[in-house]
Amino acid sequence: MTEPTAYEQWRRMYEASSLRDRPFTTMSGVELEGVYGPADGEFPGQFPYSRGVHAAMYRSRLWTMRMFAGFGTAVDTNNRFKEIIDSGGTGLSTAFDMPTLLGLDSDDPMALGEVGRCGVAIDSLADMRDLFAGIDLSAITTSMTINSPAAVMLALFIAQAEESGVERKALGGTLQNDILKEYQAQKEFVFPPRQSLRLVRDTMAFTAEQMPLWNSISVSGYHIREAGSTAAEELAFTLANGFAYVELARDAGMAVDAVAPRLSFFFNAHIDFFEEIAKYRAARRIWAKWMREHYGARDERSWQLRFHTQTAGVSLTAQQPEVNIARTAIEALAGVLGGTQSLHTNALDEALALPSKKAARIALRTQQVIAHETNVANVADPLGGSWFIEELTDEMERQAEEIFAQITEMGAGSMLEGCIKGIEDNWFQSRIAESAYRLERSFNDGQRIVVSVNDFEEGNEDEDLTILRITNEDEQKQRLRLGEVRQHRDDEKVRAALEGLKRVASDPDANIMPALIEAAKAYATVGEMMSTMADVFGRHVEVPFL
Amino acid sequence: MSVRVLVAKVGLDGHDRGIKVVARILRDAGMEVIYTGLFQTPASVAIAAIQEDVDVVGLSLLSGAHMTLAPLVVEELRQRGSEVPVVVGGIVPANDLDELRTKGVAAVFGPGSSDEEIISTITSIVAHSL
């Protein structure tokens, strides 16, 4: 008997997939195949997954339209979440404000002027309860974009769910929890790298054991790119960080196949259309190869890189902001043609403020147009086989491999140690800043055009956009709310829980999660839990460099 | 004498792409640039500005906290007897410009500001404040 061709193998997988009830034809009625390519080529759902992780891709299920939102108090954000769901959003993603991202309470002196400004303020279990009130967490998955206090936020989330009768093992969702890119790019760090990594290890171990549906880390290139990296640097730094987490888990005695399937990824969709598509294809291919060959993963889910995409905030302009709808649509299309599992589209007013309700709705509508009107979801990896796209995919992979070699050299063979060393030496940070500077020069000397910024400026004076205003009243409201929580809780219980937390934090081999959940249930605040840990772990300071 | 600039990140905002790019642009233009790192307070920025005897302070704010933090930096400087001008760059909606100017901010560079605009504005502000 002859070996079935790659196409025949794909066909079998495709036929075993459930399909959406839609005609898979062009608008004019031409019947379409689920994928195109030579019979002996690579097909979606086949190692190394350059063409996608599922055989039927969007014919089975469209990407999740996961809109990132958060501002003001938990009640404000809960309302926005409900608007998103009512408008047809299929996933939620929580944006936290700066104090929460840095593990500070809303009444901390450093939080002045920042509460609820660029995300929602979460201080305790009371806020977490308001945030998800009336939202069926078993019907919609949620992602929490938080890193330094990720373990604390997970504890609050579990406490909130268990209080409302949902068991932790039934919780599905994603914690960003990608601390390495914080030091490299986003810079919302609290503890030193190794202490932070201990928390990542604990959340990975805890969720692997007790929360089988939970994605423990969303390894994020988005912020690396927003901070100024090139596409290849975004790709390589992100995957290197992913490998570092795999090594972290392995070194702690976890089986690679127990943790890798619960890692997900998060990439930027910038304005260079084909380069972005090549980047996603290369990402899947590299991850699959490395997981199988370097890390010995045997479960195919460990090889499959699943990712979320967000359109590029930095590509948006404050001038003629309506034009941003066009930019976002093009970027979103790149994400879809690149096979993303979920997508956030930025709103047209985000170079000015957090999105207004209307702007956020238009952003979601943009995805719906791509999903339901354009027919691009009918065929998997429609650009596969294009000489240009295939060459660009190979080039992305080559550049990434060069960077991996540099990182492992810094770590004397270890990607984890290389990532830590690169952070301590400002290696990642300097490379990103250098790329940002080079790009800026090319805009400033007119080599690259940004419509409405350095050319086509007629119309820049129009100013009729209504943007979202966040008042200082929200800050005041949140402080009062926190005051009430402090007043009504059992102080003795809080003290005991924080003492327990400190004890566990001091034992580097212990898992910190149970102690955090205990403290969350006692209404200890985010700031209290974080400063208790900081007493043991210390705090990270980046050496300033230019 | 070249212009001495302190560029600063005040508050909790970790977005440092803009400040680093602008710092290099100012250096390329012949200015001396000092950067004190992330998470500074209004008081620490004022103290550094005075100790370093700079001609201008540039704040970078992308977190929406500019209306609270930028005026506080001006206040901390003035309380210490310094008249050093303060400029702001970042995500600042047009509606906020007037109030920031009333509260002593000398110039605001929003998204899309060109290198030339930043350099010439700072040069002229410093020339007028001497």
Task: Describe the structure in your own words.
The complex is a heterodimer of chains A (546) and B (130). By secondary structure, chain A is α/β, with parallel strands linked by helices. Chain A is 48% helix and 7% strand. Chain A has one domain: Methylmalonyl-CoA mutase (TIM Barrel). Chain A contains 21 helices and nine strands. Chain A has a nine-stranded parallel sheet. In chain A, strand 3, helix 5 (150-163) and strand 4 (173-175) form a beta-alpha-beta unit. Chain B has one domain: Cobalamin-binding domain (Rossmann fold, 3-Layer(aba) Sandwich), CATH 3.40.50. A five-stranded parallel sheet of chain B has the order 2-1-3-4-5, sandwiched between helices. Chain B is α/β, with parallel strands linked by helices and 130 residues long. The two termini of chain B are 12 Å apart. Chain B has helices at residues 17-28, 42-51, 66-79, 97-102, 115-129, and strands at residues 4-8, 32-35, 56-61, 86-90, 105-109. In chain B, helix 2 (42-51) crosses helix 3. Helix content of chain B is 44%, strand content 19%. Chain B is built from five helices and five strands, in the order βαβαβαβαβα.
Task: List strands and helices in order, with pairings.
The complex is a heterodimer of chains A (546) and B (130).
Chain A: H1 6-15, E1 64-69, H2 74-86, E2 91-95, H3 98-101, H4 125-131, E3 142-145, H5 150-163, E4 173-175, H6 180-186, H7 193-210, E5 214-215, E6 217-220, H8 222-226, H9 231-251, H10 256-259, E7 263-269, H11 273-293, H12 300-303, E8 307-311, H13 324-337, E9 342-344, H14 357-372, H15 387-410, H16 415-424, H17 427-444, H18 472-488, H19 491-506, H20 513-521, H21 526-537
Parallel strand pairs in A: 1-2, 1-9, 2-3, 3-4, 4-5, 6-7, 7-8, 8-9
Helix pairs in contact in A: 2-4, 4-5, 5-20, 9-11, 9-15, 9-16, 11-13, 11-15, 13-14, 15-16, 19-20, 19-21
Chain B: E1 4-8, H1 17-28, E2 32-35, H2 42-51, E3 56-61, H3 66-79, E4 86-90, H4 97-102, E5 105-109, H5 115-129
Helix pairs in contact in B: 2-3
